[in-house]
Design goal:
Helix content: over 70%
Largest sheet: none
Number of strands: 0
Number of helices: 8
Organism: Candidatus Nitrosacidococcus tergens
Mean pLDDT: 80
Strand content: under 5%
Distance between the termini: 68 Å
Radius of gyration: 20 Å
Shape: globular
Order of helices and strands: HHHHHHHH
Protein name: DUF2780 domain-containing protein
Oligomer: single chain
C-alpha cells in the first residue's frame, strides 16, 4: 500500500490550489486584450470595458442562432467572463419598454434597448455603443476572422 505523509498531502493540495488559481487567472487574462484596447482608446475603466463588451456580446447572442454564437465564442477568448461582467438590464415602463411593445416585441429591438440600459448601468451613455463597436469588431476579426466579425455585425444592427 501507498503511504503518503502529511507533507506530501499538503504539497499536493498546494499544487492543486495554485494550478486552479493560475487557470482562473489565464481565463480572466484572455479577455484582457479587448479590455485593454477599450480602456486605452475610450478612456474608460476596465470594469466599464469588460461590462460594456459583455453587454454587446449578450445582445448579439440574443439575435443569433446557438451555433453562430458558438462560432463567435470560439473567436473571443474570455467571452463568458465578459458577459458575466455585464449588468443585467430589464426593460421597465420607460420609453424603451413602450417602444418595444409598440414594435411587437421585436427581439432585435428589445436586445438593443437592453444593451442601452446595460451601458447606462455602467455609467456609460448609450452613444458609447457606437464607439465600442469598431473596437470590438476589429478585435473579433483579428482573433476569429472575417466570418466571426460578420456574425457579430449581423446580430447587432449598429453602424
Amino acid at each position: 500500500m501507498y503511504s503518503y505523509s502529511i507533507k506530501h498531502k499538503i504539497l499536493f493540495v498546494l499544487i492543486l490550489f495554485f494550478s486552479i488559481n493560475s487557470f482562473e487567472d489565464s481565463l480572466a487574462g484572455e479577455a484582457s486584450g479587448l479590455v485593454n484596447a477599450l480602456t486605452n482608446q475610450l478612456n474608460i475603466s476596465p470594469q466599464q470595458a469588460q461590462g460594456g463588451s459583455g453587454a454587446i456580446f449578450r445582445a448579439a447572442q440574443g439575435n443569433m442562432k446557438p451555433q453562430d454564437f458558438q462560432n463567435l465564442s470560439q473567436a473571443v477568448p474570455g467571452i463568458d467572463s465578459m458577459i458575466a461582467a455585464a449588468p443585467i438590464a430589464k426593460l421597465g415602463s420607460g420609453t424603451e419598454g413602450k417602444l418595444t411593445a409598440l414594435m411587437g416585441k421585436s427581439n432585435s429591438l428589445e436586445n438593443m434597448a437592453l444593451l442601452s440600459e446595460s451601458f447606462k448601468q455602467l455609467n456609460l451613455s448609450p452613444e458609447m455603443i457606437k464607439q465600442f463597436m469598431p473596437i470590438v469588431t476589429d478585435y473579433v476579426k483579428t482573433n476569429g476572422g472575417q466570418t466571426a466579425m460578420n456574425l457579430l455585425k449581423s446580430a447587432l444592427p449598429i453602424p
